[in-house]
Amino acid sequence: MDFGHDARTVHLLGELGSFMDEFVYPAEPVLAEQLADPGRDPWRIPPVIGELRAAAKARGLWNLFLPGELGAGLTNLQYAPLAELTGRSVLLAPAAVNCAAPDTGNMELLAQFGSAEQREQWLRPLLDGDIRSAFAMTEPDVASSDATNITTRIERDGDEYVVNGRKWYITGAMNPDCRIFIVMGKTDPDADVRRQQSMILVPRDTPGVRVLRGMRVFGYEDADHGGHAEILFEDVRVPAANLIGEEGSGFAIAQARLGPGRIHHCMRALGMAERALELTCRRVNSRVAFGRPLADQGVVQDWIAEARVRIEQARLLVLKTAWLMDTVGNRGAHTEIQAIKIAVPSTVEWILDKAVQAHGAAGVSQDTALAQLWAGNRTLRLADGPDEVHKRSLARRELKKYR
Amino acid sequence: MDFGHDARTVHLLGELGSFMDEFVYPAEPVLAEQLADPGRDPWRIPPVIGELRAAAKARGLWNLFLPGELGAGLTNLQYAPLAELTGRSVLLAPAAVNCAAPDTGNMELLAQFGSAEQREQWLRPLLDGDIRSAFAMTEPDVASSDATNITTRIERDGDEYVVNGRKWYITGAMNPDCRIFIVMGKTDPDADVRRQQSMILVPRDTPGVRVLRGMRVFGYEDADHGGHAEILFEDVRVPAANLIGEEGSGFAIAQARLGPGRIHHCMRALGMAERALELTCRRVNSRVAFGRPLADQGVVQDWIAEARVRIEQARLLVLKTAWLMDTVGNRGAHTEIQAIKIAVPSTVEWILDKAVQAHGAAGVSQDTALAQLWAGNRTLRLADGPDEVHKRSLARRELKKYR
Amino acid sequence: MDFGHDARTVHLLGELGSFMDEFVYPAEPVLAEQLADPGRDPWRIPPVIGELRAAAKARGLWNLFLPGELGAGLTNLQYAPLAELTGRSVLLAPAAVNCAAPDTGNMELLAQFGSAEQREQWLRPLLDGDIRSAFAMTEPDVASSDATNITTRIERDGDEYVVNGRKWYITGAMNPDCRIFIVMGKTDPDADVRRQQSMILVPRDTPGVRVLRGMRVFGYEDADHGGHAEILFEDVRVPAANLIGEEGSGFAIAQARLGPGRIHHCMRALGMAERALELTCRRVNSRVAFGRPLADQGVVQDWIAEARVRIEQARLLVLKTAWLMDTVGNRGAHTEIQAIKIAVPSTVEWILDKAVQAHGAAGVSQDTALAQLWAGNRTLRLADGPDEVHKRSLARRELKKYR
Amino acid sequence: MDFGHDARTVHLLGELGSFMDEFVYPAEPVLAEQLADPGRDPWRIPPVIGELRAAAKARGLWNLFLPGELGAGLTNLQYAPLAELTGRSVLLAPAAVNCAAPDTGNMELLAQFGSAEQREQWLRPLLDGDIRSAFAMTEPDVASSDATNITTRIERDGDEYVVNGRKWYITGAMNPDCRIFIVMGKTDPDADVRRQQSMILVPRDTPGVRVLRGMRVFGYEDADHGGHAEILFEDVRVPAANLIGEEGSGFAIAQARLGPGRIHHCMRALGMAERALELTCRRVNSRVAFGRPLADQGVVQDWIAEARVRIEQARLLVLKTAWLMDTVGNRGAHTEIQAIKIAVPSTVEWILDKAVQAHGAAGVSQDTALAQLWAGNRTLRLADGPDEVHKRSLARRELKKYR
């Protein structure tokens, strides 16, 4: 269980750190300005992000998340501190280095399960950063944490599949550059519970695809990264070759996709927490009330100490999980992946709440990123299975040891 | 300490309950639709609210908050359950019955401290519902919980006062029908700490008043009730007669205004919590995952029981506070007002968080009110003095008993 | 919902307050001394308690808990502040005024369900304070929160009943003056679930009764009030007339007994919390570390404010519950009784924890009562049904409203 | 940052695990029996512990805690899992392998700072397990977390030092085999704050030493390991050579002693938590209420999942701290030592609380170890500086980074 940074990680951390300092942090006010422009195309990604992407790509800071030859080829343990660093400016940095969800998970999925044609047609431009993608699993009318609830149908009709269903909270899909959707649905509702679903590639411009509206997250449209779309699929026909893997493999592919996705979220969330803690310290050092800086208040000090102690613990658990994924595989790291999925968003939520409180009205406003970070992180407690589902599952495995 | 409903309260509760059922709840989807209309004037109050106001006024459900002959003449204890009831549809009902903040506090202030002319010119149309108002106290650059930090200047120049300063989070002020601002500033920075401030009436259309932008609350613009403006006052000149009370009385007037304002917020917050609990129960009774309704999950039951137990306690403390304000006055109820300011928003936040979680993605979306309620309630932990300031003050009084 | 003190309550509060000041508080160090005496009979109630009882009885401060003509005839609402006051010195005051559990519940039970002979033989000396009693329900080998689990048998054999079973945590039963046990067991294991149990009077000196040992509570033997016995009943024969009520009525009688028992515990617990808060304030006002009194520490102030706010809420809920019990009966107050059973011990535990922390090593020692109070209060979270059982039950009623 | 077990650790874990299984766990009921024997010498360590010590020593499982040639020579990282394992039976195993506090800290202190004579006279028999020792720092009348408050005097008088003062909670000192006390006091109250204190060796049988009484911890006397004594030192004369190090070095020695002491407590506490979690799982798997095992209750599952997630995080932070102490020294690990001192006892307290709750009455009784473990662990939140002091200190270092 060695969590140390090897030479490559140290090198990349240096490169990425310089990139953050020179490009990303200075771009934060630019992004805010561009998003506030009333005349802008509301769902087009602001140009500053494109500029950052070009700069990052030129420096080789690109596709860091992707193992194997198609990407940077890093282990999870190598990637962890880099992902955390991007989390410090989470609206900009992950997209800048082509490591933003949901593209990351989609690229991994295509790299692992896509056919040669699928990889050529969709993975290639995603890796090059020419297009963006979305992952369409969650449905509005059912508890999607239970995959058997999914109602979208994918039916074979000759050389085609016909997709019918309604999805929502499809992150990134409001962005017109999001060209391809990976849609989860049932090909065989009568099969065994874990063999009913399949995944299929649906290009955005396929007839019958209707991107209805942007769903909000505590008031945020998240237009900076393509929002969260509600999408109606009405008799959408795609070639049979668009199916990913074989019929009935959707559940297994989803499971494979989710492990890395969860840990990437957790890595970035730690960066958010570190940034929030730094902002809090700076704020309370400089803000004066009742004759002394807020930093002298015992309760504020208590928050800061707790934040530091909690971050340290959460990070170590993320690193252990990364190390396990690298050494025994995602399946062997099942308990730990669940553990960080449970622990990290709660920890980060607590820290962001205190950061908001320390900033007063500015903390809930558009003038700091804190409230938006809070909202984004809050969804992690329910996205991809609410905490309660993961806790129950983890507990049952623990209980089995003593039965 | 009698918290029972007297005949008048029972009667009004019946009337208001019918009004909620017939008018307010059915108007909720209408409001959502009107707010979502892309072509609308972004800060104009949606027309459905005007219609509700007309209906409520016609039924005599009007100015219920205001004691004395100018209003409904209710005690705090009589008003408490009515205000709670309006909290169940907090984006509509308080405005419908002309009991929405900040107008309520402003009307009370004018009724109590305004000159005959001020009352005639501004209180009258506010009571009639013809205009709206704002209270401009918080400033962006200082910790406003410490009133000595306020930097806005109100300087006498002949028959006029000249106002210079920057305010933000001025609720309601984005609404063009918000015609009058009550501005807090320093008339004498060298006076004793509690005699430096004054309040002055500044009409919206006075030269030098610049309403800069709408501040957001966790992404929400709160356009339904006029948003939260940042306002710049640059050499704004108003007649000397616009000063409320005498020079140096601003701090005392603010204190007088805040007690009722705090308890009104708490009353409404209880209604929000009751509504959220009802929505949660309905949701978990109907939503199925892993083969049974969410309502069968032990953790969900735990939330519901806790929510009920916490609401009961919080409500009783609000009622005791109302009773004390009625019987020994706001000053005599100082500790209790502080206690509910501390306790109620936290309690309601906890309940709203669980309601969001029980609703999954819908809970953070625009399709339920929960996330917006959460955001609005979250600000109560820092608006009008953060919890930490109130706790310290309350603790000091407790400690003094044993010194 | 009137929680005010009527004239009789005011009068009794004055009398009891004087008694506390003159007799009870000064007796606290005496009790500690007597309990520490290595030569004493380990389970005999220390003599100081007998002296206090005599003094209280002489002043008419006696059986305050008991409604009707046999006792002081107070309502629950009248009794509440008196019981709270006794909770301030909970090892002495409740026993001093013959209002200590489990005698209170046993006396109520006998008054309500006992035959004339039972009342004469056992209730009379209990009311006079000549003997003490115990209530034997909990069993070591099963989850007693589910009454159907009870395994003790009460079998009819001619003119007698034969009792066999093992009970534990039978409070007060180590005291040799505890002369009578009310034993719960099954007379008909095949009957409907709620008609299987009966209660029967078993005198301590009946052959076959073996008081095995004193159970501890976090190390405490609670010898001051007769400890908590493990008792074996082996072929214990008592006259058939010792059965309380009819066969199969045990469950119903237990339910009737528990409501008042729960609220009495809560009332006293509030007194414990008030005392702990007072001790904490005194301690932190006087204790100096790092150059200033602990009272100046922000975190300590936070504790004190929270404690005050939580106590106020908990007390009001207890008062509402008392008022409901008085006006609509124990059954009508079912939800509220459950609510205080859930809320009050947790609240008081939190406060006692902070009081311990503020006292440092003294807080966990025998030199303050705090740790013992903490332990006693901790058991309330599991005695008479753990919180989890009560929450589930309360939640189900809430959920039913919306089904 | 490599937390893996090296070959020696793996080997020792195997040996110690076998010893636990064969000797320690079977001895737990024996210890309980011996402690319950009414005829025993109340403060003499029960004989079963001596037998375990002999067995452990024979197997070379001895002085594992002590780095260097005098002990097992393990690093902190090597020792961590071994210490955790002993924590699973914390009343027996640490003493069995001569790794129990406060002897461990005292041996380290003597090894590091003792003169050759001091080591020969006191360290040797401690290492051999022939005697026990105590560390006398805490005083009853002051906040000892602030070392400047210490009032005990150590005054030079010719060839002797004269010690006067009162200490309490001197763990182990009630045990008559505890032959030597290390006493902290002031040799020069006028010196610089960190140069006032010295430490001196005071044999138990020195005239003027009065072991007054055993202090309790939530009712527990902790007689199994020598209790916690209050000791009066009245004109106690010892040779000047008994001073440890030089005059004024007491503060520095204390600091050096505390780091390892804190981490050892945390390591063992993790073992307590693991044991409690195992007991909880076994209990809820087997206990039935309302027709199904407690393990099926959602709230119980939530506890178990939370417990596992929290333990994992806490353990990793302890391991990181151990690794830091090994690689950059105790001073370099200052923040992390403080972090685990804050985090681990709270985490373990939470888990023990749930374990108690899951066990019902048995959980607070003498029939499981849970309540005693809870009490012992609770003191860690205030012993050796309350959490609040450590948090403040940690926060200040964090705040300094951004000033």
Automatic annotation (TrEMBL), chains A, B, C, D:
Keyword Lipid biosynthesis (UniProt): no
Keywords per UniProt: FAD, Flavoprotein, Oxidoreductase
Entry's Gene Ontology cellular component terms: cytoplasm
Domain Acyl-CoA oxidase/dehydrogenase middle: 134-236
Domain Acyl-CoA dehydrogenase/oxidase N-terminal: 51-130
Highest rank taxon of the organism: Bacteria
Biological process, per Gene Ontology: fatty acid beta-oxidation using acyl-CoA dehydrogenase
A Pfam family that the UniProt record links to this protein: Acyl-CoA_dh_1
Gene Ontology MF terms: acyl-CoA dehydrogenase activity; flavin adenine dinucleotide binding
Keyword Hydrolase tagged: no
Signal peptide as annotated in the record: none
Domain Acyl-CoA dehydrogenase/oxidase C-terminal: 248-397
Cofactor: FAD
Family designation: Belongs to the acyl-CoA dehydrogenase family.
Subunit structure, interactors included: Homodimer.
Name assigned to this protein: Acyl-CoA dehydrogenase
UniProt source species: Kitasatospora cheerisanensis KCTC 2395
